[in-house]
């Protein structure tokens, strides 16, 4: 399994509108918005930033997601290394899992759905 680089940055916020305006001031453009206070922004270079609003009683988190080409192959390699990481379909059209590195940080791995290329995901 070889990473194809950073696939996305996922951020949680208490205020979608303020967070979106912050990134727009930095040169990002809204690629799409959902009907549940979230959306994805892109700059001219680099991975997209997906922002989701969460309730005030939760602490906003952040997760860096690495892009890989094939979820099935990666899942087997993870099992061979003794790592659990079943890939599951997301509501935004990819397969995703999370892992912890040796220092306890959480990383996401994202792959296209079967039959799609990584450029389509």
Question: Key features?
Answer:
single chain; 121 residues; alpha+beta; 2,3-Dihydroxybiphenyl 1,2-Dioxygenase, domain 1; eight-stranded mixed beta sheet; 2 helices; globular; Glyoxalase
Distance between the termini: 17 Å
Domain count: the total is 1
What oligomeric state do the depicted chains represent? single chain
Shape: globular
Can you walk through the features of this model?
The chain is an alpha+beta fold. It has one domain: 2,3-Dihydroxybiphenyl 1,2-Dioxygenase, domain 1 (Roll), CATH 3.10.180.10. The protein has helices at 16-25, 71-80; strands at residues 6-13, 29-33, 38-42, 49-53, 62-67, 88-89, 94-100, 106-112. Strands 2-3-4-1-5-8-7-6 form an 8-stranded mixed β-sheet, covered by helices on one side. Strand 6 (88-89) and strand 7 form a beta hairpin. The chain is globular and about 45 Å long.
SSE layout:
Layout: E1 6-13, H1 16-25, E2 29-33, E3 38-42, E4 49-53, E5 62-67, H2 71-80, E6 88-89, E7 94-100, E8 106-112
What is this structure, in a nutshell?
The protein is an alpha+beta fold and 121 residues long. Helices cover 17% and strands 37% of the residues.
